[in-house]
Specification:
The complex is a heterodimer of chains A (648) and B (472).
Chain A: H1 31-37, H2 41-69, H3 80-115, H4 123-142, H5 174-202, H6 215-247, H7 260-294, H8 301-314, H9 330-358, H10 367-390, H11 392-398, H12 402-432, H13 438-464, H14 481-507, E1 544-545, H15 551-557, E2 565-566, E3 574-576, H16 582-598, E4 601-603, E5 610-612, H17 615-634, E6 639-641
Antiparallel strand pairs in A: 1-2, 3-6, 4-5
Helix pairs in contact in A: 2-3, 2-4, 2-14, 3-4, 3-5, 3-7, 3-12, 4-5, 4-16, 5-6, 5-16, 6-7, 6-8, 7-9, 7-10, 7-12, 8-9, 9-10, 10-12, 10-13, 12-13, 13-14, 16-17
Chain B: H1 6-24, H2 41-74, H3 80-83, H4 94-123, H5 131-137, H6 141-145, E1 148-155, E2 158-163, E3 168-171, E4 173-177, E5 182-188, E6 193-197, E7 202-206, E8 212-216, H7 220-224, E9 225-227, E10 233-235, H8 238-241, H9 249-257, E11 270-275, E12 287-293, H10 295-308, E13 316-317, E14 329-333, E15 342-347, E16 364-366, H11 370-381, E17 410-411, E18 416-417, H12 420-428, H13 430-433, H14 438-441, H15 458-469
Parallel strand pairs in B: 1-5, 4-12, 13-14
Antiparallel strand pairs in B: 1-2, 2-3, 5-8, 6-7, 6-11, 9-10, 11-12, 14-15, 15-16, 17-18
Helix pairs in contact in B: 2-4, 11-15, 12-15
The chains are: A mainly alpha (648), B alpha+beta (472).
Amino acid sequence: MATESLKYLNPDSETEVKTKVFPRPGQNTKGIINWLTTIDHKKIGIMYGMAALFFLILGGLEALLIRSQLWNHNMDVLTNREYNQMFTMHGTTMVFLVIMPLSAAFFNFIMPLQIGARDVAFPRMNTLSLWCFIAGGIVLNLSWFFTGGSPAIGWFGYAPLTDTRFAEVLGDMGPDFWIFSLQILGLASLLASFNFITTIINMRAPGMTMMRLPVFTWMTLIVSFLIILAFPAITIALVELMFDRTYGTNFYDFLEGGKPHLWQHLFWIFGHPEVYILILPAMGIVSEIIPVFSRKPLFGYGLIIFSGAIIGFMGFAVWSHHMFTTGMGIVATSAFSILTMLIAIPTGVKIFNWIGTMWGGRIRFETPMLFALGFITMFMVGGFTGIMHSSVPIDAQHQDSYFVVAHFHYVLIGGALFGLFAGFYFWLPKLTGKMLNEKLGKFVFTLMFIGFNLTFFPMHYLGMIGQPRRTHSYNEGHGFETWNQIATIGAFILGVGIVIGVYQFVTAAFNKKLKPAGKNPWDARTLEWTLSSPVKEYNFARTPIIKARDQAWENNYGPEENHSQKEPLDDHGVHMPDRSWYPLITGLGFLGLVLGMLFHQSVDVNTGEIIRNYTPAIAGGVVAILGIIMWAIEGPAGYHLFPKEDEE
Amino acid sequence: MKILFTKLQTKYFIIFPALILFFGGCSRIDHKQSALDPKGLVSQNQYDIFMLSVWITIFLFCAVGGCLLYVLWKYRAKTPEEAMEVPPQSHGNSKVEVSLIIASTVILVILAIPTLQGVVLMNRVPDPNDASTLEKLDLNRSAIDNAITVNVTGKRFFWVFEYPQYGIVTANELVFPTSRAVRINLRTEDVIHSFWLPKLAGKMDLMPGQENFLWFIADQDKIITRTDDNGNKIKTSIDEAMPSVFNGQMRERIFAKQKFTDEFEAVGGLFYGQCAEYCGNSHAYMSFRALAQTDEDFDSWVKKFQNAQNPNLQPSSYNPENEYNKGSLVSFPDKSLGDSDVREFRAVKTISKGQAPNLAKKEWVKANSDDYEKGKKLFSSLQCVQCHAINRTGLGSKGPNLTLFGIRTSLAAGWMRNDEENLVKWLKNSNDVKFGNLMWNGEGVDDTHPLRNLENEDEKVNQLVTYLLGLK
């Protein structure tokens, strides 16, 4: 079945395809099949990004419903159960279906270009990761249509509220959808992370030493390690929860000797590194943008990398600060309090270094830079309130109040989302070959910055005067109304800003009015800017030989000995692996497995006994395994492209 | 266990309102559930550390943000040509970096010390034998020695308050004396809840299968000090700030003094609390009240509750073998209520042994109105009694204990004012008021349950209301 891959064919001629079952689409495949079977990291990155932007709009709509419900006391926009479902879905969507995949989109698209690689180490595994992510998003949102609607357990799913014993709708399936969706999303993240680690360690261009890696690539590496170390914890927690719910085990059921505390520890030992998984990519993006728009190299490159690694490492030692009010005792709370304060130091180092980078530069205020500066200021506010929470006595008042809501939105919107938007404005010209509309970009920034602060700054005050989180309503006479109304207005402004921004990104490739970008529109510094925009299918016609850290900049402004060279063209041309159906089939198999597990239980109408039918689940599993086997057998195959001497 | 920053407290009190004014244009911070208006030792400590952190971070924000603004202004590219210049490509300065790291560490140490002291204070009631600590905290030894204990049990969606020292149980309204420390043991019988009493104690979760602890002691001076509409502090009298609960004065005073919708509490001794951990559909409605009392009032309240919940003091049925003093309560049949129904009578004079109860002689008068007696009967016949305990401790019952309900200030776990109008609304359709509550939605309650069919039964509802509010 495997095709010979080492026959050197003429340019533009197709490989003979010998597979019978799912013939591999060849070199010139177009249209939908091209996208479904692609193994090109750039296309995968684009699909990751598009799907995540879709979920951003979806999660944003949920947020606006939440804000509408809180417009005034005792509102009836949503019932309390609907409200609880909204905040659960909003949280889960934004964390797992928006920020993480948006980061993954940039990892996919940018990282191989930054290290001088033609693709990631395992292109088909990369595709599988994409389909698993999309399957996870589908499973989570399918929950709306089945018994009990979507989960109403919070994105943190604290036991024992997730136990069937405490279900508020008979036969509530929401938490099951939530469990399986997170499992399959975890699979997606793990696959992608192993792939990125292997790629960064093995596939750097000659001369691209670790200390010459762009900061964004470094953050990709650190985040990938965080993911592979953090996700097993939640996987185990979710498996145990699934067993509790489906087979009546007692991991978290306190009436049978289980321990709800166990869930919190497992969840947060994943959940806190997750916070850094969300923020470090944005920090990487900002660390790329600020040097470009200041025309200076990053101040303290080594220290920024090191503090990123320290944050990642210490991120595993602070999880219990989410549990200060659960009664862990004096010693544990004190220890976690001190460790949490310590993690503020490497975070502060990054901010000092960004300011140091701008010091003495020539600062241009174009849209990516505005978003990056927005990131720094908003992240500072979020970081400072984070320092407050590290103190246990303060946390005794703040925990589960709107103060905390304000804090983490400052970190996740003002931080992560602003960083990611900066990344879009910065790298989309590389992706589409066209400059985005600068005026519209600045307008989006203004709307988002004002809307965001209007929404979340008053929440600090609301939390301090006693508004608790996750409450669908509040009573008259607490003084919450005015500031909630301001927050709601702000949320709609923020929403409009995000929608315009997303519209701008999605239409960037088709908009004929946009100016062409050229190779290096920002006079940027890293390797991807030496390539043509949009980037060719094979990325690098000739593998570059790296001589310096900011290679694109050095090529333009550096001394002769720092200019990069290129490996000579060889007669083989560029080997391109073939597209494959098997990642999609394997992904569908996993989807079938998950849906089969979700619906395997039914109740016999006559006897009232539970009937379990595993056939669909097993069938799905078999499809997934067969897909992997076939994919192993089919081999890389491929075709060769012969770029011209002067092509990038 | 020291509080380092007691001297700074007064400063914070002056500056912080000004700061809020600056940030939010709002001059008041003493909202009903505000953590910015501490009225006890523990919450004051939490507030002080919070304010310390606020000042530290404002300083940092100004320093770093100012630096950022300076850099952005000074090094902005003023012309397109300047934007294309190549500035010196410096890569870093390790001396600057190291000194900044050291500076941030020092700042964190400033926050860490009071934090660690605060952790100990929150978790441990000071040792009464440790005179120096008590002096630093400005505590009387007797406040610790005579501390009261309250076992709090969280249930979806209300609170049980048990006073083990006194053998009494109440719900949703925690009555406590200001002169003594209050130890709170926290338990739950279903999911996780969190006990949040912002003005007195901060919060602590109620974990299934585990007993958590927090404590507080109120500060009577702060309770009787209130802020008027112009932001001035005025001292009121103890009587005004802490009316007695046991004789219903607290309830009357609150109802008379202000509307339910007023944002600031006119009666200083009334505190608002809330469940702060998501616990299901009606989580938002799971609030409670805490009522501060002087020692005497607290003792009277305890006595009254003890009497009400003492099974030996309940009116027994008439026994001709007993002699009854003037004023004793006895129940015997009263045909006017219905066949074989009994009601309570009070002896007008001393009744000697061996007589049959004779209403004609005016020896007995009805202890309660007819509506009250009918309501009492309905309380059983409508199955309310299956979940609610009245005049007994009834630990473990599904619903809130309703003993002496007539002196409570709030209804439906602190959600509404406990007056006739609200109680009628609540009884007719509690799901409308508090969607998802377990009185309406609990196990075994369906559309055939009498409780769900009170919508058009004005008479029955009024009788129930008369009975419940008559429990005082």
